[in-house]
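To fix ideas at the outset, we first show an illustrative case, written as a sequence plus integers encoding its fold:
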Amino acid sequence: MLSKRVCRLLICVVLLGTLAKQSRACPSNCNCDVREKGRGKWGGERGGSKARRVLECTGRSLTRPIPVNAIPEDTVLLDLSNNNMKTIRGGAFTGLSSVQIL
């Protein structure tokens, strides 16, 4: 059986990992807007009770998509329009399970 100290440490590690995922900051070359469910055009029409994030990365002269690990997990809309991307590799957005509009 694990000691109380080890159990507490494991709980802390799990909580810190969860907070790190949830608090992923907006990429510096995008504007972020967090919307409560049901508010605004992309406020969470698919259900659920969490706030949803809209990332607007338009007109930033981007030549590549934002790396997936830099995009907050609660992003439902990712707007990359009006940039300088000529091609986007297959799988570039793999793992963005909350994105409804790209």
About this structure: Residues 18-22 have pLDDT under 50 and may be disordered.
